[in-house]
């Protein structure tokens, strides 16, 4: 195979790795921020939507015949799944140990094959199954040592499980909607609608006393900087690239690569927060990377089929 062709084949995977890295910064910003998680979910989505709005307008005027109310309606459910995923993930992480929420949310590759088969009849092959199992073993290795089963964590564990299902549904929608004329015509409505949904939930929470009635944390300047960073890095770059990857790659491939978020988050946590990873982190990282490599090696056969 010519070198140029090989580089062209690898480019989507390199982009996906960068998107996964960008997405992994979300937990760092979350830990640094004191803003209510429901409001933080709304802010990050609205910031991302507003930042990308000029590209949406550009593509809308260029491709007006390819985007109408039917397409806009199709963005509602992925926006709903993403917005509620952010809310449940952030709240769940505060009601259960970090190991519990991390382990549960990382189970997306187990659910993804069933969703992709049900929605698109996309079946994973044997190499993908093996790569998935290897990566999942890595995640279990990471979380099993610290996972604590306790009735008082049941609510947080349930929220984390629901968050995982919502994330899988959101990713499945991204794969199903890969026929949109451009990435921006899809992700911008998703971010803006998702942000509005989060604001509605926040308003209901403030009215019932479940959400703090303050727009940001105590240090407003610092919180605004964190909100802008969360909207730009893990959302504009992270989620947008993941959605773009779902247009090009199989759903299970993107799900496996997304497991790499815990690797980058562990490294960033050590560098920024001083949270030194446990010994299991390194073994889990090796298994997850090995699983991703196996999935990549399965791709040429998929392209030919």
How are the SSEs placed, and which strands pair?
Blueprint: H1 3-32, H2 37-62, H3 69-74, H4 76-95, H5 98-105, H6 108-120, H7 126-144, H8 154-176, H9 183-208, H10 220-248, H11 251-258, H12 261-273, H13 279-297, H14 299-304
Mean pLDDT: 82
Helix-strand topology string: HHHHHHHHHHHHHH
Spatial gap, N to C terminus: 18 Å
Shape: globular
Helicity range: over 70%
Could you list the spans in which at least 5 consecutive residues all have pLDDT below 50? Answer: 1-7, 300-305
Which structural class matches the secondary elements?
mainly alpha
Radius of gyration, in angstroms, nearest whole number? 19 Å
What fraction strand? under 5%
Give a count of the beta strands, DSSP E runs of length 2 or more.
0
Largest sheet, strands/sense/barrel? none
Number of domains: 1
Number of helices, where a helix is a run of at least 4 consecutive DSSP H or I residues: 14
